[in-house]
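Tokens as discussed.
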């Protein structure tokens, strides 16, 4: 004798009239883990719903174009309609709207200059900046400024996490611009390769007075849903104050902020 599976969804609290909606969304989430299809029986088990209930939900989702039968008999999978919706959602994201609250919190906690940039071809473009809440140091950076990649912390982030062959081509194309701005500026390609290897390992970059004497900067990458680095966050401050505060404390706060923004862009650490 077959025991009818108990429908446990009634034990959960849903807004009035929305039980079927939540059940349908639950089915979509489960199916997203089975790109080649999931058998009805196993889907029912995962959802903790009766087979008849799951089948009815699948029929509704199929009629709307979100689910389709898989090649294996009795199995179902998601359609590309959900991909299209996801892409529309991503394209509607306003990065400043997403990042600003988290950058503001970082600014309050650290009380230092916070910079946020995006990569645009061979430059890091500063698209958001918050001034320090204490101290007199004001960096020369401004919103809209194009930062050179080889001598800025955020720039080196883009070099490190760009295509594998990008650094060499960048060096060749910009050889006439690569020059020592301070005694600390890296202008040797082999040394830059070593620097970038370390950046990839630590997921952070430093400007150790390479652009301006007396001013240091630490930067971290922001990853998107495709595991690409299109944005970077940095903290700029005087070298003396960096030594006073300690890099480790600032870096922890910086990475925490970058992790939150990355997650809001759809990134998952498990992608790496």
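Sequence:
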């Amino acid at each position: 004798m077959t025991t009818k599976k108990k429908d446990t969804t009634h034990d959960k609290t849903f807004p009035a009239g929305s039980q079927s909606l939540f059940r349908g969304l639950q089915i979509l989430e489960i199916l997203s883990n089975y790109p080649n299809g999931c058998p009805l029986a196993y889907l029912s088990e995962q959802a903790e719903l009766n087979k008849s209930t799951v089948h009815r939900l699948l029929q509704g989702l199929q009629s709307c174009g979100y689910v389709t039968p898989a090649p294996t008999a009795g199995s179902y999978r998601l359609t590309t309609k959900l991909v299209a919706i996801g892409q529309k959602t991503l394209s509607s994201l306003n990065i400043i709207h997403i990042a600003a609250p988290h950058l503001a919190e970082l600014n309050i906690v650290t009380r230092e200059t916070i910079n946020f940039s995006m990569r645009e071809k061979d430059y890091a473009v500063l698209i958001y900046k918050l001034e320090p809440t204490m101290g007199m140091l004001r960096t020369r950076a401004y919103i809209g400024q194009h930062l050179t990649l080889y001598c800025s912390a955020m720039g080196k982030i883009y070099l490190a996490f760009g295509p594998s062959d990008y650094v060499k081509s960048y060096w060749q194309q910009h050889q006439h611009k690569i020059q020592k701005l301070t005694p600390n500026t890296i202008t040797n390609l082999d040394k830059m390769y070593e620097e970038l290897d370390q950046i990839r390992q630590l997921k952070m970059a430093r400007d150790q007075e390479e652009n301006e004497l007396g001013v240091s900067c630490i930067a971290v990458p922001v990853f998107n849903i495709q595991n690409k680095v299109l944005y970077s966050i940095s903290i700029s401050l005087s070298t003396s104050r960096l030594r006073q505060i300690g890099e480790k404390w600032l870096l922890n706060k910086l990475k925490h902020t970058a992790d939150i923004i990355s997650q809001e862009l759809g990134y998952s650490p498990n992608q790496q």
